[in-house]
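Input/output pair, single chain:
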Amino acid sequence: MKRFLAFALSSVMLTSSVTLGSMPAAVNAAGEDAIPISAEVDPTVSKTGKISEPTKEALESVIKAVKAKITIPKEYSEFNYNFSNAVSFDDYVWSLTWRNPKDDSYIQVNADQNNHIQYYSKYNYSDTNSIPKYLKKELKSTAEQFLKKIAPEVALKVAYKDSDYEGIYSGNYVYIFERMENEVSFPDNTVRIGVNGVTGEVQNASINWIYDAKVPSADVKVTKEEAAKLIKENMTMKLTYRSNYNRIYAEDGSKLKKEAYLVYTPSEDYISIDAKTGKVYLSKVEWKDENLKSSHKEAAATAKDDSGAGNISLTEDEIKKIEELNNLISKEDAIKKVTSNKYLYLDKNLEVYSATLNKNYNGDGGTYVWNITLNDPRDIDYKKETDYYRAYASARVDAKTGKILSFYASMNNYYDEVKGKWNTVSIKYNKEQAKEILEKFLKAENSNRFSKSKLASESNDFVAYLMKDTPVYSGYSYQYNRVNDGIEYPYNNIYGSVDGISGKVYSYGYYWEDDVVFASPKGAMSAEKAMEHYLGKDGYGLKYEINVVNTDNSTKAVNNNTSYSSANEIRLVYRPDINPAFISPFTGEQLTSQGEVYKEAKPYSYKDVPETAENKEILLLSDMNIGFEGEYFYPEKAITVGEITSLLQNVGYGYKDDTKKSDQNLITKEELAQSFIVELGLEKMADLSGIYQTGYADENSINTKYLGAVALAKGLDIMKADSSNCFNPKENVTRAEAVHYILKFLEVRREGIYR
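Output:
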């Protein structure tokens, strides 16, 4: 119904899903079998000449095109398809799936309206071993050849950029390619191909590509330095506080103070400079009709009653809490604080529904609050089209000070269900006037925090009605961020919304922490200097990018077809793709989101580990993104408990005894065997006495408490004897040995044959 109308035009999608064989085919006028679709769906052709509904011819064409590039084994005998039509782009996608009914393995391929393959996936449920047998470099050519096979025109225009390991549960190496045009990077178009490190077979491929847009020449009229000057003129570096919420506890278990650290961040989320004209772009989406720039947000609120019954006998703490009630305002007074507040929007039909007293955890030291809800008690007459709306409101009131902590009131729109049209209404207050009303309310209810805040954002919020399909807003929202020494701390803020018709506040709340320790800005560099550091990081340069151009077609729209269309435009720009975009105000270094100095992840490579067959296990572990920092591996060096713990944790496993990574003690072979068995959950079995024999020549030198673990490690093929049939239980494990044992352990752990 229109009362629930959403205005997210850019996300409109029409999807049809049909399974071959799931219904009998229809017969068209010519007596031919038609594609099996719902009777009420009438296949049509869009205004651009492309089909907007599935047809028999199009499905047959895409199946043949895909099978010409990808071999579908006979055992994948079950075939299904989906058809998706993106209305705004006037494009559609076929999703084809061939499944093996014996084991549910499948091959899925997505292709566009021109039969270009966009996505490929092959999955075999019986393949559970994900420990790589191939090195990453050995399978790069497999990825390249597969791309040439399924998208030869794409393969001619890409450059290899990077590769990664997806993790032990998939076992895939992912090879990333980026589009190049006229020797200029085009990062908006990429290809990702996943090759299984065990089988050497391509498991998936994703091609994000624009085929039909014109690529401009690489001739530039604006230099990189001139573009940087334009960026500086249109974007600043903003000094702001951030908080590392992941660091809550210290290593000794004590709770850390909430520390707010300082960073410089760009004032704009996006910026680029046209390399031919010098035009500044602050968006990659263009609207050719301003009337289409619409948004709509709906708020919701709930109240929770956490009250419970007391006990007959009272503890000292319970008695203490009861005594606290002497200092708290009554329920009636709390309700009056809300209902008599001249700033709040309260529908005339509202009545108090509930009021509960609960502990407040909004950073105020554990004070009590009254949670109040107000409802319109009238029954809904479902026979009347106009009688559907019932107002609702909720509020939280500090039970000690009587200050309102939060408030929300529902808002009704002005759509007439009977007449089928929007009613107009007078908007008495503009955005600036509404802001003044909200700030008067904030000064009355939250003056101390408001005085330490500054306006960070304001936006249109509530749509009262539509006028010629253009939303008319009657609600405005504002957010005020906390400041310290004039610097914003966006993790703490106050927000509110005002109705432009009544001039009343219909939404208000805040989040504030009183125990935050702010870093001093003393010694921070200027914003201009921070910008120099920012643009000096890797990522700033000449690139092609995609601009989405939306065009209003409302005058041409017929039969309820969409009133707008979207097209992709390629433009040549200078763009700062710098990630992470945080700069230290003291050193100019690039920082992570946790406030630590950013270090670009690089594959492990060691000067003392040549690429030979003997070193393949170390190289495999490196390809799995596991290893030691530094230029040397030192294969014969004894490994520490902390180092082997770190290796296992990096691959997704850790010791159940939670050995610390900082432990510098060396580990013996029998101790490592015990650790593996504990991680496998077999420690109770290993503790059984009198049943284990290892067959090692030096079995008598194995500590009896480790005998079961050593025997199980041998039986599971994790650890073996040397050429003299000795286990050498007291010997320290070397780094090279540790790699071998870890790979064997991962095979056992992944296969689960011990269960």
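The radius of gyration is 33 Å. The chain has a mean pLDDT of 83.
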